[in-house]
Protein backbone atom coordinates (compact mmCIF):
# COMPACT_ATOMS: atom_id res chain seq x y z
CA UNK A 1 0.00 0.00 0.00
CA UNK A 2 1.37 3.42 -0.97
CA UNK A 3 0.16 6.66 0.54
CA UNK A 4 0.21 9.94 -1.40
CA UNK A 5 2.54 12.65 -0.06
CA UNK A 6 -0.37 15.07 0.38
CA UNK A 7 -2.30 12.55 2.51
CA UNK A 8 -2.49 13.65 6.17
CA UNK A 9 -1.28 10.16 7.18
CA UNK A 10 1.76 10.31 4.88
CA UNK A 11 4.28 10.91 7.66
CA UNK A 12 2.69 8.20 9.83
CA UNK A 13 3.07 5.83 6.88
CA UNK A 14 6.73 6.79 6.28
CA UNK A 15 7.60 6.36 9.98
CA UNK A 16 5.74 3.04 9.95
CA UNK A 17 7.78 1.90 6.97
CA UNK A 18 11.01 2.81 8.80
CA UNK A 19 9.83 0.77 11.79
CA UNK A 20 9.02 -2.14 9.46
CA UNK A 21 12.40 -1.90 7.74
CA UNK A 22 14.31 -1.91 11.05
CA UNK A 23 12.11 -4.72 12.39
CA UNK A 24 12.79 -6.88 9.34
CA UNK A 25 16.53 -6.10 9.53
CA UNK A 26 16.46 -7.59 13.06
CA UNK A 27 14.40 -10.51 11.73
CA UNK A 28 11.64 -9.81 14.22
CA UNK A 29 8.02 -10.62 13.50
CA UNK A 30 5.36 -8.08 14.38
CA UNK A 31 4.53 -10.29 17.37
CA UNK A 32 8.18 -10.25 18.50
CA UNK A 33 8.31 -6.46 18.42
CA UNK A 34 4.89 -6.15 20.05
CA UNK A 35 5.93 -8.32 22.98
CA UNK A 36 9.15 -6.31 23.44
CA UNK A 37 7.22 -3.03 23.79
CA UNK A 38 4.20 -4.44 25.62
CA UNK A 39 1.46 -4.23 23.01
CA UNK A 40 -0.38 -6.44 20.52
CA UNK A 41 0.89 -7.26 17.05
CA UNK A 42 -2.18 -5.56 15.51
CA UNK A 43 -0.89 -2.24 16.88
CA UNK A 44 2.47 -2.81 15.16
CA UNK A 45 0.59 -3.64 11.96
CA UNK A 46 -1.35 -0.36 12.22
CA UNK A 47 1.87 1.58 12.87
CA UNK A 48 3.57 0.05 9.85
CA UNK A 49 0.62 0.80 7.58
CA UNK A 50 0.40 4.40 8.83
CA UNK A 51 -3.08 3.79 10.21
CA UNK A 52 -2.10 4.82 13.76
CA UNK A 53 0.13 7.64 14.99
CA UNK A 54 3.17 6.61 17.00
CA UNK A 55 3.71 8.77 20.09
CA UNK A 56 7.23 9.93 20.88
CA UNK A 57 7.31 7.69 23.94
CA UNK A 58 6.26 4.66 21.90
CA UNK A 59 8.71 5.53 19.12
CA UNK A 60 11.47 5.66 21.72
CA UNK A 61 10.37 2.22 23.04
CA UNK A 62 10.39 0.80 19.53
CA UNK A 63 13.86 2.24 18.85
CA UNK A 64 15.11 0.72 22.10
CA UNK A 65 13.55 -2.68 21.28
CA UNK A 66 15.14 -2.63 17.82
CA UNK A 67 18.51 -1.39 19.18
CA UNK A 68 18.49 1.66 16.92
CA UNK A 69 18.45 5.41 17.49
CA UNK A 70 15.08 7.12 17.33
CA UNK A 71 16.53 9.19 14.47
CA UNK A 72 16.79 5.96 12.45
CA UNK A 73 12.99 5.70 12.60
CA UNK A 74 12.35 9.22 11.26
CA UNK A 75 12.31 9.56 7.46
CA UNK A 76 15.23 11.74 6.33
CA UNK A 77 13.18 14.21 4.30
CA UNK A 78 11.06 15.08 7.34
CA UNK A 79 14.12 16.16 9.29
CA UNK A 80 15.54 18.43 6.59
CA UNK A 81 12.30 19.67 5.00
CA UNK A 82 11.32 23.01 6.55
CA UNK A 83 7.68 22.55 5.50
CA UNK A 84 7.27 19.21 7.25
CA UNK A 85 5.49 18.66 10.52
CA UNK A 86 8.87 18.29 12.22
CA UNK A 87 9.59 22.00 12.03
CA UNK A 88 11.16 23.85 14.94
CA UNK A 89 9.04 22.34 17.73
CA UNK A 90 9.30 18.84 16.30
CA UNK A 91 13.06 19.17 15.90
CA UNK A 92 13.40 20.41 19.47
CA UNK A 93 11.44 17.43 20.74
CA UNK A 94 13.60 15.10 18.64
CA UNK A 95 16.74 16.70 20.09
CA UNK A 96 15.34 16.18 23.59
CA UNK A 97 14.60 12.54 22.85
CA UNK A 98 18.11 12.04 21.46
CA UNK A 99 19.60 13.54 24.62
CA UNK A 100 17.16 11.52 26.71
CA UNK A 101 18.68 8.33 25.31
CA UNK A 102 22.06 9.33 26.75
CA UNK A 103 20.86 10.12 30.31
CA UNK A 104 21.78 7.46 32.85
CA UNK A 105 20.22 9.03 35.98
CA UNK A 106 16.64 7.64 36.22
CA UNK A 107 15.30 10.67 38.11
CA UNK A 108 16.63 13.01 35.45
CA UNK A 109 15.22 10.75 32.72
CA UNK A 110 11.78 11.05 34.37
CA UNK A 111 12.04 14.86 34.39
CA UNK A 112 13.05 14.99 30.72
CA UNK A 113 10.29 12.54 29.79
CA UNK A 114 7.75 14.77 31.57
CA UNK A 115 9.01 17.79 29.63
CA UNK A 116 8.71 15.95 26.32
CA UNK A 117 5.17 14.73 27.00
CA UNK A 118 4.12 18.17 28.29
CA UNK A 119 5.39 19.83 25.11
CA UNK A 120 3.55 17.31 22.98
CA UNK A 121 0.31 17.65 24.99
CA UNK A 122 0.50 21.44 24.91
CA UNK A 123 0.90 21.43 21.14
CA UNK A 124 -2.06 19.07 20.66
CA UNK A 125 -4.21 21.05 23.11
CA UNK A 126 -3.55 24.34 21.30
CA UNK A 127 -4.53 22.70 18.00
CA UNK A 128 -7.88 21.60 19.47
CA UNK A 129 -8.52 25.07 20.94
CA UNK A 130 -7.87 26.56 17.50
CA UNK A 131 -10.24 24.06 15.86
CA UNK A 132 -12.93 24.91 18.43
CA UNK A 133 -12.53 28.64 17.71
CA UNK A 134 -12.81 28.00 13.97
CA UNK A 135 -15.94 25.88 14.53
CA UNK A 136 -17.57 28.58 16.69
CA UNK A 137 -16.83 31.24 14.05
CA UNK A 138 -18.30 29.01 11.34
CA UNK A 139 -21.46 28.57 13.44
CA UNK A 140 -21.76 32.37 13.78
CA UNK A 141 -21.38 32.65 10.00
CA UNK A 142 -24.28 30.22 9.52
CA UNK A 143 -22.23 27.38 8.02
CA UNK A 144 -23.87 23.93 8.09
CA UNK A 145 -22.90 21.32 10.68
CA UNK A 146 -21.65 18.94 7.97
CA UNK A 147 -19.23 21.51 6.57
CA UNK A 148 -18.02 22.45 10.07
CA UNK A 149 -17.34 18.77 10.74
CA UNK A 150 -15.43 18.41 7.46
CA UNK A 151 -13.40 21.56 8.14
CA UNK A 152 -12.56 20.94 11.80
CA UNK A 153 -13.19 17.26 12.48
CA UNK A 154 -15.23 18.29 15.54
CA UNK A 155 -18.73 17.10 16.31
CA UNK A 156 -21.41 19.59 17.33
CA UNK A 157 -21.12 18.45 20.95
CA UNK A 158 -17.37 19.12 21.04
CA UNK A 159 -17.55 22.78 20.08
CA UNK A 160 -20.90 23.45 21.79
CA UNK A 161 -19.70 21.93 25.07
CA UNK A 162 -16.46 23.89 24.84
CA UNK A 163 -18.42 27.12 24.52
CA UNK A 164 -20.74 26.21 27.41
CA UNK A 165 -17.77 25.23 29.54
CA UNK A 166 -16.03 28.58 29.11
CA UNK A 167 -19.15 30.74 29.49
CA UNK A 168 -20.84 28.95 32.41
CA UNK A 169 -20.95 30.65 35.82
CA UNK A 170 -19.35 27.59 37.46
CA UNK A 171 -16.44 27.65 35.03
CA UNK A 172 -15.84 31.38 35.47
CA UNK A 173 -16.09 31.08 39.25
CA UNK A 174 -13.62 28.18 39.21
CA UNK A 175 -11.20 30.24 37.12
CA UNK A 176 -11.53 33.15 39.58
CA UNK A 177 -10.81 30.82 42.53
CA UNK A 178 -7.81 29.39 40.69
CA UNK A 179 -6.47 32.89 39.99
CA UNK A 180 -6.82 33.91 43.66
CA UNK A 181 -5.24 30.64 44.82
CA UNK A 182 -2.24 31.17 42.55
CA UNK A 183 -1.94 34.85 43.55
CA UNK A 184 -1.76 33.82 47.21
CA UNK A 185 0.68 31.04 46.32
CA UNK A 186 -1.58 28.27 47.64
CA UNK A 187 -1.47 24.77 46.21
CA UNK A 188 -4.77 23.00 45.64
CA UNK A 189 -3.97 20.93 48.71
CA UNK A 190 -3.39 24.09 50.83
CA UNK A 191 -6.73 25.51 49.75
CA UNK A 192 -8.52 22.23 50.46
CA UNK A 193 -7.03 22.12 53.99
CA UNK A 194 -8.13 25.72 54.62
CA UNK A 195 -11.64 24.86 53.44
CA UNK A 196 -11.82 21.84 55.77
CA UNK A 197 -10.61 23.94 58.73
CA UNK A 198 -13.17 26.66 58.02
CA UNK A 199 -16.00 24.11 58.10
CA UNK A 200 -15.01 22.74 61.54
TrEMBL record:
<dbReference type="InterPro" id="IPR010982">
    <property type="entry name" value="Lambda_DNA-bd_dom_sf"/>
</dbReference>
<dbReference type="GO" id="GO:0003700">
    <property type="term" value="F:DNA-binding transcription factor activity"/>
</dbReference>
<dbReference type="InterPro" id="IPR001387">
    <property type="entry name" value="Cro/C1-type_HTH"/>
</dbReference>
<dbReference type="GO" id="GO:0003677">
    <property type="term" value="F:DNA binding"/>
</dbReference>
<keyword id="KW-0238">DNA-binding</keyword>
<dbReference type="GO" id="GO:0005829">
    <property type="term" value="C:cytosol"/>
</dbReference>
<protein>
    <submittedName>
        <fullName>Helix-turn-helix domain-containing protein</fullName>
    </submittedName>
</protein>
<dbReference type="Pfam" id="PF01381">
    <property type="entry name" value="HTH_3"/>
</dbReference>
<dbReference type="InterPro" id="IPR050807">
    <property type="entry name" value="TransReg_Diox_bact_type"/>
</dbReference>
<feature type="domain" description="HTH cro/C1-type">
    <location>
        <begin position="19"/>
        <end position="73"/>
    </location>
</feature>
Amino acid sequence: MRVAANNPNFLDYKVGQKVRSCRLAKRYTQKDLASKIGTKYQVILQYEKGKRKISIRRLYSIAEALSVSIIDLIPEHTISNENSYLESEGKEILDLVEKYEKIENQELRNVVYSLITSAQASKENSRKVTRIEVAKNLVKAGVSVEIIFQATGLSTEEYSNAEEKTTSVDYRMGQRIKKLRITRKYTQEDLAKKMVLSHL
